[in-house]
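check this:
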Amino acid sequence: MDFERADLWHVAGYGVAVMLGIEFTFFNHLFVQSELKGGYINMPDVSTTARASDSANQQFWFLQRNIVIGGRWKFDFKKVSK
């Protein structure tokens, strides 16, 4: 297939999403964070080639779960005056 590319920017649709999260901190520096993200995407006008008659559409729901373990430290590099 030898079609011209369809990479011009245009709005193909819309999406909505929500996120819910909680974080637990231990020993003032370590943390465990859990997130749940979900949403809906609807794209009724996806360009597939440069021809206006060629298009596609898609819609889908998504759900994502994240668990993060990490640490936070504050580094204070102030000069010590003598």
